[in-house]
Task: inverse folding
């Protein structure tokens, strides 16, 4: 299933590789910003994203802290046919016992799309709502909306929302951001994306909303070489009348199609001036062995930093070395030494800094795994100048299906590990698909209420998308006696009322037809 690709941030923010996706998290960390602030945490800045690579639509914030944690420790979930509710309970160790802190609930559909994420805080010996995120998806699994709400004391309050559209090939064609002013949604900006016949990005356009119309802001244009590899990206700004060049990236590749480097140029006095770039080398197995960062100075390229990696037979990194260029020579700065077990899973890491004459230990990390590859522990140590000393530790347990059930966080006391915090996880299969309030994920027809009735009853039906709907009432002989809905109807929850009027007592049937969805239910009139 495809996940949504949405850009959030400046149009010049780019992924760190031309062909890869830069995942961005837009969810507050546990204990993060105050509800309703609308601030986005962990967002990459243009400075550290624009180094190279094409800017592509970023991922819509469907990954909660809970789901991100599952990935980090190699866990998995086991869904029922209708979906799953996952609950994360966070507790802190106070004095001699565990005390509730936060509770996060995630509802996943049968395709593991996250439909809702709700966070609660433990206050005054009860759980109180904090924030929630609601998402919807199209038939192809592409995320079409993401709504952020905070708890206002007695009801959920809207904060901001993202909306997206896609073409027939599932490529995202637009992303729109809007904020809630307390009464209505206010559009702030959108992005428009175009692709060629091969599905390659050709342009990204950013336009803010001025209150009555879209205004050009910035755009990125892409070109490809004869082999289909990205070769050129131009970033432009709108100056009220025409597009003006801002910067461009030029890419180079070896015979195997691996990127060997790029240069960035800025537009100045109608000429492209060199700015900075990077050069890469690879070993025979295709692993990147060096990354040279360079700046254009006094009409020549000057090295600034050099990163070097080595690998073992499994392709796992065994060492990392960072050097800077000073006084016409490369000077050591930092190195990291890694150990890995036979499957390539990392078991150890030591970070060291260069004193000018020798390597000085800094910190050490260690990992353990079970036979299925689940990470069972993580230990952090520090160097006190003589020996390694324990600092912190995390232990993980799993059920028979490989689901994470507990994470225990501890710090080192004088002689033993001391409890700090723990995370407890529960998995509850859903017996019916979850509906996002106001925007259902499936068709539905509810039982009428009241039933039996005299003379009127209400019928509720839900639609996941716009379509032609017919809702009719029939008597026991199959004759149509009333038409309640007939025509194009928007997505959401709809309620209609049927007044039986002078219809005689007896059994009646109401039937809905909406696309391929057809359902009939029974009701009774009593005089």
Result:
């Amino acid at each position: 299933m495809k996940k949504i690709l949405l850009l959030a941030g400046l149009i010049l923010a780019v992924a760190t590789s031309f062909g890869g996706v830069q995942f961005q998290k837009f969810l507050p960390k546990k204990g993060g910003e105050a509800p309703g602030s609308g601030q986005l945490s962990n967002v990459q800045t243009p400075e550290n994203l624009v180094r190279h690579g094409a800017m592509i639509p970023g991922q819509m914030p469907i990954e909660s802290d809970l789901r991100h944690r599952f990935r980090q420790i190699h866990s998995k979930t086991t869904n029922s046919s209708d979906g799953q509710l996952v609950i994360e309970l966070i507790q802190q160790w106070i004095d001699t016992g565990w005390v509730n802190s936060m509770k996060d609930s995630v509802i996943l559909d049968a395709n593991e799309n996250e439909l809702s994420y709700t966070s609660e805080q433990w206050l005054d010996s009860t759980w109180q709502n904090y924030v929630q995120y609601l998402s919807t998806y199209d038939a192809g699994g592409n995320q079409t909306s993401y709504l952020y709400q905070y708890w206002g004391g007695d009801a959920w309050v809207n904060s901001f929302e993202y909306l997206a559209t896609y073409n027939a090939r599932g490529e995202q064609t637009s992303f729109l951001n809007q904020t809630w002013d307390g009464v209505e949604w206010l559009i702030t900006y959108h992005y428009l994306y175009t692709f060629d016949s091969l599905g390659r990005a050709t342009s990204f356009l950013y336009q803010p909303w001025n209150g009555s119309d879209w205004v050009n802001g910035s755009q990125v244009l892409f070109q490809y070489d004869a082999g289909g590899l990205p070769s050129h990206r131009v970033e432009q700004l709108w100056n009220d009348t025409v597009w003006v060049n801002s910067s461009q990236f030029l890419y180079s590749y070896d015979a195997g199609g691996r990127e060997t480097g790029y240069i960035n140029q800025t537009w100045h006095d109608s000429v492209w001036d060199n700015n900075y770039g990077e050069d890469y080398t690879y070993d025979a197995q295709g692993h990147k062995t060096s990354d040279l960062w360079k700046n254009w100075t006094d009409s020549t390229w000057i090295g600034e930093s050099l990163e070097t990696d080595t690998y073992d037979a499994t392709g796992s990194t065994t060492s990392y070395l960072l050097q800077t260029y000073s006084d016409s020579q490369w000077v050591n700065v930092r190195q990291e030494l890694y150990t890995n077990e036979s499957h390539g899973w990392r078991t150890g890491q030591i970070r060291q800094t260069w004193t000018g004459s020798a390597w000085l230990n800094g910190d050490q990390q260690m990992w353990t795994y079970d036979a299925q590859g689940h990470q069972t522990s993580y230990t952090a140590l520090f160097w006190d100048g003589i020996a390694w000393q324990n600092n912190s530790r995390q232990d993980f347990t799993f059920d028979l299906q490989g689901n994470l059930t507990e994470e225990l966080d501890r710090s080192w006391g004088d002689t033993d590990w001391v409890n700090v915090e723990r995370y407890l996880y529960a998995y509850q299969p859903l017996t019916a698909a979850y509906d996002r309030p106001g925007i259902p994920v499936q068709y539905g027809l509810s039982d009428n209420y009241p039933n039996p009735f005299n003379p009127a009853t209400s019928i509720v039906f839900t639609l996941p998308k716009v379509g032609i709907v017919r809702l009719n009432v029939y008597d026991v002989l199959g004759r149509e006696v009333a038409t309640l809905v007939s025509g194009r109807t928007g997505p959401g929850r709809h309620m209609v009322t049927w007044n039986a009027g002078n219809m005689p007592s007896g059994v009646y049937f109401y039937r809905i037809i909406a696309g391929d969805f057809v359902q009939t239910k029974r009701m009774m009139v009593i005089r």
User: Anything to note?
Assistant: The radius of gyration is 29 Å. Residues 1-81, 432-438 have pLDDT under 50 and may be disordered.
